[in-house]
Design brief:
The structure is a homodimer of 352-residue chains.
Chain A lengths: L2 H8 L3 H8 L7 H14 L5 H8 L4 E7 L10 H16 L3 E7 L4 H13 L5 E5 L6 H8 L4 E4 L10 E4 L1 H14 L5 E5 L5 H16 L9 E3 L4 H13 L6 E4 L2 H13 L9 E3 L5 H5 L6 E3 L2 H16 L9 E4 L2 E3 L20
Parallel strand pairs in A: 1-2, 1-3, 3-4, 4-5, 5-11, 6-7, 6-8, 8-9
Antiparallel strand pairs in A: 10-12
Helix pairs in contact in A: 1-2, 5-13, 6-7, 8-9, 10-11
Chain A binds a DNA duplex (30 and 30 nucleotides) through helix 2 and helix 4.
DNA sequence: CGCATTGACAAAAACCTTTTTGTCAAAGTA
DNA sequence: TACTTTGACAAAAAGGTTTTTGTCAATGCG
């Protein structure tokens, strides 16, 4: 079932068979057809290992998938969505996706995983996700001269290929919406600031607040891991504090679900007594009670862009500095937010 | 940076270098150490492509990930959790996971994806998930003589390696719980019956009902895709019908979320007027309102078992027929279900 | 006619390992 | 001494492609 047995069967040389099947010149149409026919009859498939060895290409792209920070240790749903888009594009070009799941949330370990993937030449290209402010993986991939596309941006002195959603605009819109509903104390439950996206989301929030002449209160702009439990505990802290916010903007839907639970526990009616919004448009956001106002950031589309960019890079059709794609976001208004409630009677701050 | 340049550098033969680095005999301790040292100095890493070609092993395992049936086209969270467990085990053994996302829910296409993975010899072994009642992929993998482990069972005349959760017991427990709370009209919102797990869940439901002398009403045992929207529409149908159920057992948390939304829409208080339970213990299930009674089926653990089983199979340490692992389930009682409400006044069925 | 070009194929090199077989001296045994 | 064993290394084959170079006859041109 190797090319040599096929060549022997056809009474032709190996090179002719190879050239025929790979669509090169130097082989007559009749012979080509004869080879094609016999090859499919006999069920011949070129050994990808040998092909990889010869060409030096693996026809695979590597991706490290961040795990959710708690629960079933599954892959973060943003990245599983992204993977869907990437895989769709790659598959069409006969590339494979080698997925490594990062079970522990340890940046050093993530870098080591990338290093392993690159250095052991398992892959031709890399997808670098959940970029940090100064992401060492970008320098690493550049040094290894391996094509890569990041999902999210980073601080880099040199150009690199990136695809990202418009985090800044998303949080500008979300904050603006709250302000327009009369809220003045708008809290931000953000992710850890070493992630670049968290910086951008904060910037969007700050821009909207500044634009309306509202001050930024560091006591109500908190940061934590992107999980329900952190949303719950951070929100509890917010509500217990003096002068609690009337609106809470959460960096992810998961944070928002946790925050909603904390609000319910305090007896607050979500959408009336307090406004909450999320980010991600997760399927649960449409079916929770009340349905969550959120932002659709089009992960599948982003994944497709990443896949396409990667292929262009691999084919030499584009240089990294040409690949900068900022996916617009779509605000999804639902019922978890509303008009700012009237100020409580003055003795309300006695409540524990 | 190949073995030949390393050998030249050391003034040794290629074979000696190879044997030294691979821990074979036939090389003196001093020489071995010298080679080791120089190899790490020079940063030599054996080319995995050449190694694969020679050994005929790819050191990779293939897995097809079912996409969620709607929304962001992401990977089903059960399978992303499973992937986490599998990857954890494989990684420790220096195996890689090649993940293919099945974006369209088309069984034929899924089979084709497996065929491609196997036939193009991209992988040494396969994980076959979301097994169907008569799953063609099992026969296919056996014919290709490629080791595989299924997640879920199927009808097969010959033994095969499987790992599964105890679906039957889970739905027996869930149903029993409803019956013990006084419910007699217990609905089942199940997945499509061509999935083996749906059959098993139905069996558990039926066993509990029979055991308590309750009859099975086909009008309230419905089947649909595993999504919020199907949960919503199926539940609407249930509530509109004559003699609606007082309890709804859903095959997944997603179905349950949809069902909850439909119940709220009808003005029913979940946990009081109607009881709902899910399956999966998704993170949202703990934070929705009311928190959802569900079952934890330990996907990460299942993934680890699959990974371990695969490695044993690949190393010849076990035969497929020895690998049958049924993961026990854990019921997670929360507040979405409760005592059966008293029967409504007789004119209630006039309500639209 | 003589020479260059082209078409169609074959031979061999290269890709980088691992594994099998081979060499040769030193040591052990009868 | 003659023969076998063993230790330490080298040479070469094998794995299945792709690509470069080579061959040889037929064709085209002046």
């Amino acid at each position: 079932m190797s090319i040599v047995s096929l060549a022997r069967d056809l009474d032709l040389s190996i090179s002719t068979v190879s050239r025929a099947l790979n669509g090169y010149k130097d082989v007559s149409p009749e012979t080509r057809e004869r080879i094609r026919k016999r090859a499919s009859e006999i069920g011949y498939r070129p050994n990808p290992g040998a092909r990889r060895l010869k060409s030096g290409k693996t026809c695979a792209v590597g991706m490290i998938l961040p795990a959710v920070s708690e629960g079933n240790h599954g892959v973060d749903s943003v990245y599983s969505g992204l993977m869907g888009g990437v895989a769709t594009e790659l598959e069409a070009a006969d590339y494979h996706l080698i997925a490594t799941v990062q079970t522990r949330t340890d940046p050093d370990r993530e870098t080591a995983l990338y290093e392993n993937l690159v250095h052991a030449s398992w892959v031709d290209a890399l997808i670098i996700g959940r970029t940090r402010v100064n992401d060492p993986r970008v320098a690493l991939a550049r040094k290894a001269r391996i094509p890569f596309v990041t999902y999210g941006r980073t601080n880099s002195s040199e150009p690199y290929a990136w695809v990202d959603t418009d985090n800044e605009q998303a949080f500008y819109l979300l904050t603006k919406r709250q302000i327009e509903s009369g809220h003045t104390r708008v809290a931000l439950l953000n992710g850890p600031l070493h992630y670049y996206f968290a910086i951008l989301r904060q910037q969007g929030y700050v821009r909207a607040m500044m634009e309306s002449g509202l001050s930024i209160d560091p006591l109500i702009t908190l940061n934590g891991e992107l999980s329900e439990s952190h949303g719950y505990s951070l929100c509890r802290n917010l509500l217990v504090g003096a002068n609690p916010p009337t609106s809470i903007i959460c960096a992810t839907d998961a944070l928002a679900f946790g925050a909603m639970a904390a609000c319910r526990e305090r007896g607050l009616k979500i959408g009336l007594d307090i406004s909450i919004s999320g980010y991600g448009n997760s399927s649960a956001s449409a079916y929770c009670d009340p349905p969550l106002t959120t932002v659709d950031h089009q992960v599948f589309e982003n994944g497709r862009h990443i896949g396409q960019s990667l292929l262009r890079l691999l084919r030499g059709q584009a240089q990294p500095e040409e690949i900068h794609y900022l996916e617009p976001v779509v605000l999804v208004p639902r019922q978890s937010d509303g008009q700012c409630p009237p100020p409580p009677p003055s003795n309300s701050n006695l409540s524990r």
